[in-house]
Amino acid sequence: MEPRPRSFYVLAAFFALFLAFLYGPTLTIAILSFQGPGGGLTFPMRGVSLHWFADLFEQQAVGDIWGSFRRSFVLGLMVMVTTVVVSVMGGLAFRKRFAGSAVLFYLIITSLVIPSILVSLGVGLIWSQSGLPVHWSTSGFGAQLTWTLPFGLLIMFAVFNRFDKSYEEAARDLGASNWQVVRHVVLPIIAPSLIGVALFGFTLSYDEFARTLLTSGSYNTLPLEIFGMTTNVTTPVLFALGTLTTVFSLLVIAGFLGIAWLMRRRQATKGSDAGKGLV
Description:
The protein is built from eleven helices and no strands. It is mainly α and 279 residues long. The chain has two domains: 28-62 and 234-269, no CATH class; 66-232, MetI-like fold (Orthogonal Bundle).
């Protein structure tokens, strides 16, 4: 076995430092959230307990933690479903060139480079000037779609760019209608990608701050509530909240990955059963 070059260890050390920089703040907050009842916001820790996690479930003197969590969760589901549906429809539409398709594509992607706070300000102004109530479920929902839809559409464009149209042609030769082709051929094949789009939509919405800042109205989402708490909460309860929200995000990701694994396993089982039937 040949010895590894010195550059390997340099790159490995650089990658380790990058991981420490990436996850160090989150781990620090998680550690500090387990302080005792007399703990503060900095090291050294004063005891170890679950006191601040229990404090989250008691009546809070400031803030609306669980109300903001429910709003972020519902908003994330709304954005997720809309992103998946519109992305699939857009991906199907862009499979064939049409007049203005290139301009429309660049307009969609341009929203990603516009500063988020400007999008939030613009959407809020449109709603208020139109006489519509500025609310997290309407203007906030619209502002977040300007962030999630371009990602979903880019994924769908990449998926359909590599999609083998022979499967659709075979289904049509067997008498399938256009809807049956989409329902029984296209959607099952692109299902793993749909899970990815759904995960993008939910997670981007769940932790979005800038595009929700001026469009949520008088009710905060969870990121806005956490930001507000940083100005008036001086106990590790804020760290405990951060730890729980991080764990929730990881559970959501794990759930989507589990669904993708189950779908892949189911498809493999069906393929194996079909092969046995042919034999």
